[in-house]
Amino acid sequence: MGLSQSFFAERFGITExxxxxxxxxxxxxxxxxxxxxxEYLATTSIGIDEGIVKSATEGVSLGVGIRVIAGERTxxxxxxxxxxxxxxxxxxxxAHIARGPATILKTGFEEARRHNLYPMLxxxxxxxxxxxxxxxxxxxxxxxxxxxxxxxxxxTYADSLRDVLVATSEGRLSFDRQPMARMSVSxxxxxGDGAPQHGHSxxxxxxxxxxxxxxxxxxxxxxxxxxxxxxxxxxxxxxxxEMTVVLGPGxxxxxxxxxxxxxxxxxxxxxxxxxxxxxxGQQVASxxxxxxxxxxxxxxxxxxxxxxxxxxxxxxxxxxxGILRGYLQDKLSSRLTHNHSTGSGRRESYQHIPMPRMTxxxxxAGESDPEEIVxxxxxxxxxxxxxxxxxxxxxxxxxxxxxxxxxxxNGKLTRPVRGASLIGxxxxxxxxxxxVGHDLQLDEGIGVCGKEGQSVPVGxxxxxxxxxxxxxxxxxx
Amino acid sequence: MSDLESLASDAxxxxxxxxxxxxxxxxxxxxxxxxxxxxxxxxxxxxAGSRGAGIRVLVxxxxxxxxxxxxxxxxxxxxxxxxxxxxxxxTEDPFADLPDPADLGSRPEDLQLxxxxxxxxxxxxxxxxxxxxxxxxxxxxxxxxxxxxxxxESYTGRRVFANSRGFVGSYRTSxxxxxxxxxxxxxxxxxxxxxxxxxxxxxxxxxxxxVGRRAAERAVRRLNPRKIATQKAPIIFEPRxxxxxxxxxxxxxxxxxxxxxxxxxxxxxxxxxxxxALTVVDDATMPGLFGTSPFDDEGVICRRTVVIxxxxxxxxxxxxxxxxxxGLQTTGNASRGITGNAGVGPGNFYxxxxxxxxxELLKGLKTGLYVTELIGGETNTVTGDYSSGAAGLWIENGxxxxxxxxxxxxxxxKRMLLDLExxxxxxFRGSIASPTLLIGxxxxxxx
Lengths: 477, 447
Hints:
Radius of gyration of chain B: 24 Å
Strand content of chain B: 35-45%
Order of helices and strands of chain B: HEEEHHHEEEEHEHHEEEHEEEHEEEHEEE
Distance between the termini of chain B: 64 Å
Helix content of chain A: 10-25%
Low-confidence stretches of chain A: none
Radius of gyration of chain A: 24 Å
Number of domains of chain A: 2
Number of strands of chain B: 20
Largest interface: A-B, 80 and 78 residues
Low-confidence stretches of chain B: none
Oligomer: heterodimer
Shape of chain A: globular
Shape of chain B: globular
């Protein structure tokens, strides 16, 4: 596909000549590099609450972001109007970062290589609204049918289609059409006059409507949300203090995202402010741990054919057998540290400056049997599902909250416990990993990662792992 | 009527003409600027403006919403039709409606939300502020060797709202802010902290030197932390961390959580839920603050609501929908972006200052934890269970003794609210504000 067949050429008549003129304007006061990021985003979301489809929203936003890099400096401007005058004006604003004679732009573009990770049978707007409404109604029904103690259900379905065009002063041209869809269900359950308890589930990815009809149905997510709420009805206070923790497979991989991933983003390391700075080649985890960030897995929420700087995404090894191997690089950090981009430059929208971010972060499977892992623990905590997490990059301390967990007593899961935060230190926590299961699972596709005010979709994954020492923040001291 | 007010009214009329029985339109426009400096050099400059419009229609008791960044006549027409089409697929909701016309209105007084000086600020001056703040952090202590940078940001914007019950209104806002994040290093320990100042008016900012000095002090005092033993102890939340706790309390009085019975405070109106010392107010009428506005996001006039008075739960915070569900009056707390059904948001939601200074609260404790940072924490609004990662300073004999980190604190909000004392140091740094809080006992999890 050449530029002429691309979305922005067809819809807005943008030509190579236009792109060259905008980039020349951006480099009119000097600078080594400039790029343009055109984005057209169409979204739909539908929500059910109390059995009533109360909300249905759709919309479009579009714009172009223009960036100029001069040494360590970045100039940025954007326009939500794609008229040539407005784009040129934004280019001149971005150009202010440099203070010199114009940089001469080399002419001509070469279309960048890209993956084909999310082929679409039908784009979201080609499918009917009524089919989407059906999904939330089915979820509502299934959650209530799961157990009569479920008394309140909310479900939403949201999808989007993002068309992007990236053109750089190095002559790189990339297009992509990025679908995203997600269902989420939350349920409240109550036993008699007792206090209500909450359960939540959801998932999706770079998929379209058919995924929820064929692969993960609304009933799947609804039953899971209801099940979690019901489990919580019998929960006891969470323990407090250091103990052995077993993480179940899938979403608990958020541990890797917080403990390791953020600390390996190249911007923090270039600036020397990460707890992992200067540790490449060092042991930062037990030899059982190999951690990957991979933007090339088909249909996954964190996957991209090209990153938001137009570079193909990659499978990047972060930790190999416990040894720190590499950082996640974007354009700016790789230029400044004489490395290659790892396809990790991401941004929330055309209004945002790209930075190094994760895609899908997971730990490779080990050899232990998951049941044996639980059996090996005399006293500890088994965490099946998590809420969110956060990390302090500089100290390396990270937190994540377990929403469904169980006491382990003499090798068996006994009582469910109430929600609790777990805390650890990034470069230390994974050194206590003593068993890794053979059951690697990726999460269901619901992760949102926030950094410096920008949110991007991500994925995580992990097999069952045993961590010999971790601090659990319950109330039962 | 301004151009954007006409545009919003026209969109509402167009929706009625196309078959909507009611409609409400929001338009926002804004200009943002940000500059960042790191290690005394400019790191980035960003400047741009954008606009967007959104509409919500009711066709009978069915709702539909849409938005666009294209404000041309064609863009608006597509948006209106989109919302009407969506109203065909939703379900009839007996409570779907617009606010009662008697509740609509705009505060007449000058709320001081817009300062023209912010548009006049020179880029060079803004960069210089960030440089001075970072320089002050470096100068404050030799252990500040590195920095994540300093930034100066400013914003000016306008919010416009019109509905089919005759409301048309708009207001301008401005804001600016300066922040710095120094990194302290000593004996193999590295810690970062930050400080910031912000305001709707340029004159409200603290000096760059003050911001830099406080940020440096905060980073340095965290160096070489210890991990303490698991135990139950009193906990002092400084205003910055107390605010996070108060944000969680807001979620529990949010009318949306109340009508779903998804809050531990549902059904507790008129009951004693907190210590006598606690009075919590939501006031969107205080001039010049971040939670202030002349009308809420569905055109209801803003006001002051006492939420908790001397420990008794007096009012939930409501938009018109949750008010109708609960058989109550809206409190003017409707909140949304540019489209969709309104949610509930805070005005200036704050705890009234108590009589004891933070130093006095501290002096009274033999041991305890003074929390300066919360990470990854959340309250389960349904149950009130609270657990969060924390860092801070250990208290011994009424003094801050040494830094601690890699610990969690946990409790239940229902009990915490009954077991608290309130400091005298209330300051508004955002729409949620709290003085120093002392909770009598929580569980600290450490070694």
